[in-house]
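User: Some background: our group keeps a shared notebook of sequences we're curious about, and every so often someone picks one and asks for a predicted structure to add to the entry. Today it's my turn. The entry only has the sequence so far, pasted here. Could you supply the structure so I can complete it?
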Amino acid sequence: MTADVLRPARMRPGDVVRVGAVGLRTRPTRAVLSALGIAIGIAAMVAVVGVSSSSRAGLDRTLATLGTNLLTVAPGDTLTGGTARLPATAEGMISRVRPVTSTSAIGKLPDADVFRTDRIPETENGGITTYAARTSLPAATGAGLRSGTWLNAATGRYPATVLGTEAAERLGVGDARPDTRVLIGGRWFTVIGILEPVALAPELDSAALVGWPVAETVLDFDGRPTRVYVRSTDADVEAVRSVLGATANPEAPNEVKVSRPSEALVAKQAASKAFTGLLLGLGAVALLVGGVGVANTMVISVLERRAEIGLRRSLGATRGHIRSQFLAESLLLSALGGASGALLGAVITTGYALSQDWPAVIPLRAGLGGVAATLAIGALAGLYPAVRASRLSPTEALAAP
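Assistant: Of course. Here's the predicted structure to add to the notebook entry:
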């Protein structure tokens, strides 16, 4: 007759989770406060990645709406370091390039300051620039009207102006009305329209735009454009770009600057990556602090529960069972913080994206990365306390006060 061999009991995964949850249920306040550090770190990281992705999606949507085939031609610098000038024929010459679908232009009027009344000192012009504008400007730049109408062949010959959105705010003009006038170059102009913000031509936001004919007859405009906007077919943008300098100013093509406004938007988005990296770093620091908090909580838990550990050991629990219990408790504590943080980060991302009129985008990698980070931190934070708890002998643990 063979004696029965006693084998140590095994804990199934479900049992480990239940036993690990006991410590959290008996100390809910401490568990919540410990998980808060993890939650803050994960929320910060998810929100930063989500807001960055939402911003990029908003930029892509804007470019898809406005088009990326807009080019601008402006005067560059002369060989002596001065500011060059575009010929008066630049716009007409550019319009003859075969792939070009539309053109428009503005001409700066440096001596035509803008004021709300004639009581304001000349030195306080509010940083508003006056431009002569072609009637085709909205179609070329994608500008929209917030109020009123745009200049046409009739109003362009009379003292009428359309204000950019920032210019209207600085002048205190809320709506375009027949009785609303501003002083431009010493002459009264009726405000017939106010623009929405122009993403691809931000110089128009702080501008007062008047018709080309009235600028020449009333404001001493010389007819030379200071910026030409060019639209072409998408496939021919680069080809058109390569010839615009020589086309706009054949005598001095090196004195012409050709740019693509959409690239400025992309560059702005790229510049924000440095700030995003800083925020991610702060989120990582918060996550590290949360991990230290979890480790501290688990060490204290081991010290407070030595009697429980001794009782379990005396009833047959192995060192492996004790390690599993405290490691599971640490993982559950971190997972609680991680899940709360991921949810909070998603809420922050969605709220901010909606406030900026962006699509709310929460990358899957952000959520998965957050879960992986919390599990890793939980494992590291609980490893030492779990090993320490498993090393307590039953007699030593039961004898502890």
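Suggested note for the entry: The CA atoms of residues 103 and 175 lie 29 Å apart. The radius of gyration is 34 Å.
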